[in-house]
Specification:
By secondary structure, the chain is mainly alpha-helical. The two termini are 37 Å apart.
């Protein structure tokens, strides 16, 4: 407790703002992949996996690229002022999202939402960096990461209760963002170094940003580090881009459904999209639960480790865990695999922010935190390709069912919804839907995607190991 009392009030206010922002974000984002690709009779848009990958990969990538600019803008014009603009854009984007359904319109609205998130992201990270010291930054960023995951855990649990009315997912997130305007009243802006005159023009600000970019580009070691971290984020983002769709399409959740139905019927009653199944997002959400329960313990274990060493171990464990989530139809195996992934995530991910926060110049914290999102930008674009084109080629149940129908010579109208098409394929083959799912699994091997995910994670781990060896000198 004595350690916790060392943090100023702004540290706790910033963490609470982060909690609500993550609540709003993950309340929508955890459901987004299945919303984009889901059957229209369940409120989905029936986009292809490739279209989903393009929207989530490029759109989320832009979200993480813009902090390169927004971090410097926040340093110049003030954290609180930029936060107000961010929340206005954020809340309005969520409110408008249910009004669009075409691919182009959804893509455009997601990019608008990304602007609000990009304005927000570097500010809170910089605030945490400025309100912690080298002695307490490990625990401080561990608390920050735990707050992120409390929000990430609560958000989907709330919005899943309203999944039958998909527009409510977005309206709830909009309302949660608006709550942060109250918290801003208690946010005392930390010192930003040299004060900037209020009359500085936007042109001069952009020019200063470009000058700062030059200084970042000259830091070759930092750039190499960012490129290596991009590999980790490519693997990591499959938790949101691929795993919910994979569980929804392939994993048998009936054993878990029956457990909750017998012991906690509220779960089986509210988180079941169909008889004897649980929502895929409910399953993936246990990652956040694991982190809430274990983050402080893991942070305490690795607090004396060098950040790079903790990242190397974390990346390796994460890679194994994520690849294991894709090898079985057994939901209990999936839960264990997510636990392995979460342990690696807790050891590695917070240390990225801590490492950059340590090496950033005092008057450029937000700028460097903004650049810390560059590997996330690259990772999201690559993750979008893997969860889109690669997933559709190797693992997509809709595509595989169409191949099965063509192989069997069945005639099924493509005007049917995804669910109706699959049910008709099962009917014509004389199998139940579960039997057809198992047949497709054994025949077309959709789990082979795990090899791709593991290879990416191992590459990032090995590259970071040699980076550490090189820089240690």
């Amino acid at each position: 407790m004595s350690v916790l009392s060392n943090y100023p009030r702004t540290f706790w206010v910033a963490n609470t703002i982060e909690l609500f922002e993550r609540w709003a974000w993950y309340g929508f984002f955890a459901l987004f992949a299945n919303y984009l690709t889901g059957s229209s009779d369940l409120g989905g848009l029936e986009f292809t996996q490739s279209q989903k990958g393009m929207i989530m990969g490029f759109g989320t990538g832009i979200l993480y690229f813009l902090p390169v600019l927004t971090g410097a803008i926040a340093d110049r014009y003030g954290y609180k002022r930029v936060l107000v603009i961010a929340f206005i854009v954020y809340a309005s984007a969520f409110a408008l999202f249910p009004q669009v359904s075409s691919f182009a319109a959804v893509f455009a609205m997601y990019l608008y939402l990304a602007v609000g998130a990009a304005l927000f992201k570097p500010i809170i990270s910089a605030t945490i960096a400025k309100t912690t010291t080298e002695k307490n930054s490990s625990i401080g960023f561990g608390i920050f990461y735990m707050m992120v995951n409390i929000g990430a855990f609560i958000g989907p649990l709330i919005t899943l209760l309203f999944k039958s009315r998909s527009e409510m997912i977005f309206y709830i997130s909009s309302g949660i963002i608006l709550l942060n305007f109250i918290l801003l009243l208690f946010y005392n802006e930390p010192a930003r170094g040299k004060e900037v005159r209020k009359e500085v023009s936007l042109t001069k600000t952009i020019r200063a940003i470009l000058v700062n970019m030059k200084s970042i580009v000259k830091d070759v070691k930092f750039l190499i580090f960012l490129l290596i971290i991009a590999g980790f984020w490519t693997m990591y983002q499959q938790l949101f881009f691929t795993l919910p769709v994979f569980i929804h399409q392939w994993v048998d959740t009936s054993v878990l459904y029956h457990f909750f139905d017998a012991h906690i019927p509220f779960v089986s009653a509210n988180y079941s999209p169909a008889p004897e199944t649980l929502d895929a997002e409910f399953i993936t959400n246990v990652d956040a639960m694991y982190i809430i329960l274990l983050q402080i313990v893991v942070s305490a274990i690795v607090m004396r480790w060098k950040p790079l060493h903790s990242m190397i171990v974390g990346f390796l464990v994460c890679s194994v865990g994520m690849s294991l989530t894709l090898v079985s139809q057994n939901v209990l195996f999936t839960l264990v695999a997510i636990l392995i992934f979460a342990v690696g995530e807790m050891a590695g991910s917070p240390k990225i922010t801590e490492y950059i926060g340590r090496i950033a110049p005092a008057d450029k914290k937000a700028l460097y935190m903004g650049y810390s999102f560059i590997p996330v930008f690259i990772g999201n674009v690559l993750a979008g390709f893997i969860s889109g084109n690669v997933y559709q080629a190797l693992s997509d149940k809709v595509s595989i069912t169409m191949r099965f129908v063509a192989d069997k010579g069945f005639r099924i109208s493509e005007e049917l919804t995804n669910n109706e098409y699959f049910n008709e394929a099962a009917l014509q083959s004389g199998l139940t839907t579960r039997e057809l799912t198992n047949h497709l699994w054994n025949t077309y091997n959709p789990s082979s995607l795990w090899i791709v995910i593991l290879a990416i994670g191992i590459f990032a781990t090995v590259a970071l190991f040699f980076y550490d060896k090189r820089t240690a000198k």
